[in-house]
Structure formats: structure tokens, C-alpha cells
Predict the structure.
Amino acid sequence: MSRLLLSLLAVGGVLLSQTLAAPMWIERQFLRAAELIAPVFGRHSPDSDVSIDHSSWNDFLARHLVAGEDGVNRVRYGAVSKPDRAALKAYVAKLETIDPATLDRAEQLAFWINLYNAATVLLILDHYPIDSIRDIEDPWDRPAATARGVTLSLDDIEHGIIRPAFRDPRIHYALNCASIGCPNLAAKAYSSGDIDAQLDAAARSYVNHPRGVEVIEGKVVASKLYGWYREDFGDSKAAVLDHIRLYAEPPLRTALEGKRRIDKYRYDWSLNDAP
């Protein structure tokens, strides 16, 4: 994510709320470009056999992630104990000691996704209780972690490393921004051995959920992810729909027949908080 929605509050008198939003072309102007923050973050080691232990992240998710009947995964932020929080911080600190350039491509992608998601949960825990991640000042621009001694924000990890280094639209289904409108926080850590299957599963889950894509009275209503990051999904509304069809299950695929544009975008920034 980025601070585009916060920035838009000052643009052209446009007020952002649940009922009024800036046109997508305006919102897109505030997105950070997908550009490597340093060449080293685009390197990997194809012959590496290094395997990272993500069991601490798996343990945290097993205790605190709740799969809702509505298809949305939520976190019991209020129930996270001091020892669990300390263990999560220790996990992030362990990842910070690893040089990502020493990892093969799949291991490196899993590394970055898990680091991003764990750091986001820690950010929420540091400010909880809140109603939305947007209640935090500059949530995506503040220091979140370090790699190779470089201090990184969440935006640095997403837009300065993952998007430009991997060029895979499925990463948008893996990165969680602690919001209801965002693709689910996965119930298990991403791992190099089955990361392609995990990314495909995340894509199918989001595309076929109403907060991802829905056809209402003949109109295609989609998540703002497809507007903000249109260039990653195909760089035109028609191409984005072609991407969506790759993962659409029969009911949605049928509803999308003949559709060549997205008619409306929406996004719910409410915290993915579980009671």
C-alpha cells in the first residue's frame, strides 16, 4: 500500500470517505513507482540452498489468525500476549540478519512477503487499538525493518523491491495491509517449495470474493487494487479483466462474459480485527 489516499485529501478539494472518492486516474497519480531502491535488491543466488525457518510466523498465525465465515481472515490483535509479540519481533529481527541476495529467487520472494506481512502486524500491534491502518501517521513510510543494513519502510519493501524485482501480479494477493478490503493474510507463511501454488490460491481466493470482483446489475465492481496497480495486471481495463478471468471460478467467469471494462472500484480500509 501507499499513502495515496491520505495525500488525496489535499488534492483538488476532493474529500475521501466511504461514499465519495477521487477518480481512479487521480488516485493512481499518487502511487509510488515500481523502481528498485538499490541494484543489490534485484539480485539473487540461483544455486543457493539456504532455507529460512518461518516456523515462528506460522506459530503466530496459528494462534491469532481467524478465518471468518465471510471469507475474510482476521487477526486477534487484542489477544496477542507479550510473549507472542516478543516472539514476532524476534522473528522479524532474525529475518533482518539474512542477506536476501544469498537466497534463490523463490526463497527470496517468500522472505520478502513474510517480512512485509509480519512487519505490518507488528505495526498494528504497536498502535492498537485503532479502527484502520490509516489512523497511523505515515504507516507505509515509517521504518519497518532493515535488510543489508538498509532501513526499509513497508513501501520500500513493496514498491522498491518486490514489485520491480519479481514483476508478478500475484504478489498483490500475498501482501496484506491489515484491512478488510485487502487480500487475506495467509494462514501459513509463504515458503519457496510451494510458493507458486500459494500465490495461485491467494489469487483465486481474492478474485472470487465480492471484495475482489463482483458483477452487480451487469456492472463490474472491483477492488481498487486493480485500478491502483493496473500496470501490473495488464495496463488496461480489458487486460485486467483478462487477468481476473485466469482465476475466476465458473459463476464469476460466466458473469464476466462479454465484459471489457471495470465500471466501479471500491475498497474497505477497516482494520482486519477479530474479536
User: Anything to note?
Assistant: Residues 2-20 have pLDDT under 50 and may be disordered.
